[in-house]
Model the fold of this input.
Amino acid sequence: MKYANIKYYDISNGLGVRTSLFVSGCTHRCKGCFNEMTWDFNYGNDFTQETIEEILKSVEPGYIKGLTLLGGEPMELPNQRGLLALLRQFKQRFPKKDIWCYTGYLYESDLLNPQGRAHCEVTDEFLSYIDILVDGEFVEALYDISLKFRGSKNQRLLQLQKQGRPQLIL
Done:
C-alpha cells in the first residue's frame, strides 16, 4: 500500500486537532475531487511499520483528539488490508482517542454486506475500530460549503456503534 500525505495538526477532517493520513488509490474518481493525484494506487510513499510508528508518535500529545483516514480511498480492498495494523495498534495504545474514516462507499450496501463492493475478510474488524464514518461519493452538483466535515449533501456522518448500527450525526 502507498500513501500520499500525512497532515499533522489537522483541524479540517474531524473534530479537534488530528493526524490525517491520505492513502493512495481510489476507483471512484469523483468529478470535482479535491485530491485527484491520490486516485493512483502507486502514487506516493510506501506505507510501512515505520510510517505507523511516525503516525502513532504524532498522536501521543493529549491535545491530539485522534486519527483521520482519507485519500484516495481507505476502503479500497488493498488499503483496508494495509491499514489494519495501524488501526489495531492505534486503538491498543490510544483507546480514548477516535478514528474518523472518509469513504465514497456506502456503509450498508458496500461495507457491511458480505457481497458489497468494498467488503473483504478484514472489513468487519476494520469497521470495528472506526468511530466516525463519512460515507458516500463526493457529488459535485451537491457541493455545499456550509456542510461540516463533508463536501456534498449526499454524504453522511455516521457514528458507528458496536452493534453495527450507525447513528447519523450532524
Observations:
- The radius of gyration is 15 Å.
- The longest helix spans residues 77-93.
- The beta strands are 2-10, 17-23, 45-46, 64-70, 98-102, 132-135, 156-160, 166-169.
